[in-house]
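Lab channel / #folding
Pinned by the channel admin:
"Please post every new chain as: sequence first, then the structure tokens as a reply. Keep commentary short and put observations after the output so the thread stays searchable."

First post following the new format, from NK:
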Amino acid sequence: MATERLNAIVSQLTPSKSGLSAITQKNPDDVVITLAIRTPLTKAGRGGLKDTQLDYLVYSLLKKVIEKSNIDPQMVEDICLGNVNNGKSAYIVRAAALAAGFPNTSAASSVNRFCSSGLKATQDIANQISLGNIECGVAIGAEMMSAPGGDQNPQPFHEEILKCQDAADCMQPMGQTSENVGKDFNISRESQDRYAAESFQRAERAQKAGWFDDEIVPITTMVKDPKSGEEKQVTLTKDEGPRWGTTFESLSKVRPAFSQYGDRSTGGNSSQTTDGAAAVLLMKRSTAQRMNQPILAKYVGATVTGCAPRIMGIGPSLAIPKLLGKYHLTLADIDIIELNEAFASMAVYCVNALGIDTSKLNVRGGAVALGHPLGATGIRQICTGLSECKRQKKKILLTSMCIGTGQGMAGLFVNEMV
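Reply from TO:
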């Protein structure tokens, strides 16, 4: 420990490095991830979690965090839940944490930045650790899209707000924004279907090979038969989204999902509505070493940016260069990229606009095949991306997603399980 402290002091006195050499340095004050786990992702309204409440899902995963990490819960100072659709999420995460075994000295909060809420929760905990406000915390993302309601604003804004066109465009449904991207940037139906088919095929390959197994923890819950009303206990272990055997030809037969706005986005080339949760345990490197916690990865940083609300899907094409620029990196420095596939339209646009090497992109499929539980996706990407880095013995992970109302977010991590 003394040697590491001395090295840290020396590094502060020597000229700073940039690029890969800078972010791959190891220092005692680094923010690191020591656990990254998620639930299976299930089909909203008809899958294995359709009758599960958000509080039980959060409680179940937080219990798994304690169990899998074997950490003393007293060490966890704060827990942040990313969630979009439930207005009571701040109550839920606090009560669920207490029931799961965290002491009343472990604080809790919730955040909502739509589809980036999980990454936002991770950033919030990491920033607290980096500033020395806490030493250890949990970021969790969870969404029950089976629950009634949703994240769309049911009423128009005040008339003064609606005088601003960008503000009025924040009311546009996500399907409409996808069609806008398709039309504005000439992303054809064929290119979207071909992209989606590849996502399904990659997810099928990964699922058959067992690549998801080390990131998924089983969840036991109750499910009700829709016909008889009979309840039975089930233990969920696998994602339900991947449809084996999906081809471009089969997707090309699917009808448009948002025909009032256009004819390019379908139920086959858009993200699935999904229930699920994911969590990461974060702490200082020195704390992890003191507590004999395995260090999976270093959290480098994250950033957010905005774009026109009517084409919100292009957000990652702005957030990714912004983040890479902060660390003097290029896409050539990145080994694995997890880009949220809210719609194939935005994924194809971002691939083309940034020149992304698709062999690095969503190697296990993305939200088109796996599903998109809004508040959980940001952390689900971290779990999947780090697992894939470990499998390939690669180091640098980039995650990104578009965000409703016109934003984009991106996160950067260094895998240490090489």
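NK: The first strand starts at residue 31 and ends at 38.
TO: also worth noting, The longest helix spans residues 189-209.
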